[in-house]
Amino acid sequence: MSLSSGGAFDTPRPGGYHPRREGGETLEQLLIALGRGRRATAVLAAAFVVVSGLVALRPGSKLGRELWIMRSAPTVTPSATLVPTSTASPSPTRTSTSTATPTTTFTPTPSNTPTATASATATISPTPSVTPSPTQTPTPQPTPDGTPRALVVPILMYHYLSAPPAGADAIRRDLSVSPAQFEEHLQALRAGGYTAITLYDLTLALQIGATLPDRPIVITFDDGYRDNYVNALPLLQRYGFVATFFLITGLIDEGRAEYVTWEQVIEMHQAGMEIGAHGYSHVDLRGRDVDYLVWQMLGSKEAIEARIGEPVRFFCYPSGKYDALGIQVLKSAHYWGAVTVHPGVRQRSEAMYELSRVRVHGDTDAPTLLAALDAWVRQERRQGAP
Ligand SMILES: [Zn+2]
Fold this sequence. Notes:
By secondary structure, the protein is α/β, with parallel strands linked by helices. The protein folds into 2 domains: 3-57, no CATH class; 142-382, Alpha-Beta Barrel (TIM Barrel). The protein contains 13 helices and 10 strands. Strands 2, 3, 4, 5, 6, 7, 8 and 10 form an 8-stranded parallel beta sheet that branches. The protein has a two-stranded antiparallel sheet with strand order 1-9. Helix 8 links the parallel strand 4 and strand 5 (244-247). Helix 6 runs parallel beside helix 8 (226-239) and helix 6 (179-191) crosses helix 13 (366-382). Mean pLDDT is 76; it is low at 1-27 and 53-137. It binds zinc ion. Zinc ion binds at residues 222-223, 278, 282, 318.
């Protein structure tokens, strides 16, 4: 009999709760028995409170996990919370299976950044036109089958999908790919036999060996610029490509013209695009405490989930900067992986939170892109990658 089932209370309760008159006790005897019963009950209740508290707070428990996410020091081993206990269907169904009651987006208030307190409240109010969907009980990650895998899957990294404005500096020009140029990229990728997949697809392939199409490729957009919706989405749809968009939710909340709106996010999601989180604001996440990381990582995740109605699985480190604690918080927040700016095309099942990418520059034309991908893939094949 386990303590967590409250086993002590399965036994017959003391006389105080079952004052059957047996054998003709006197009223005095009965009152004494009742008094003894109350004392015994009080002792048992106190013991139960202590034991249930210990059980509930152990690292692997649901409450313990939530408390870890919200409060605790990073000394707790997060892997204890990460071992999937259910065998999820490997089918790429993306609908949430949760039946939890929708709740307000959880946005912990950081105590160490004054500006954060003011802006964090913005995430709490979903756009009225949106019906928040339940995301409180995340679908578990498919149980990794324990086989370490490495797959050659280029993950392209785009930012702006528009011509840079007049007078733009070198950085902005390098981040800007024009719609015409992007269309050439898509045409070349299609002609080259590439098929776009999502990071969700990639995860299933790496963790349980799900089959991928020939020449799989992931197309990602960082920062959630408005031109992603205006220019990239129609082209992706025209050429039959899916892409992953990483959003900075605080900037969307502010309604900035340069960034997508929540309505556009919903439309992109409904068009089959994968939506990921890029933080609440775009800041260096290294050297932060747990509360701050939870606010940035879990806060942005839940802000998106409240709009699109399904779990957000992937994170993109702002400016590619991260540390070990950031990875721990991502794992505890039920992210499945994260993309970096490390150059490379080889993805490993044991490095889901450090996925490599191929940066697409403003001056990258289609032949250059294809040649670069071919060179990457050839190099990996020479090193024995599948
Ligand atoms: Zn960014």
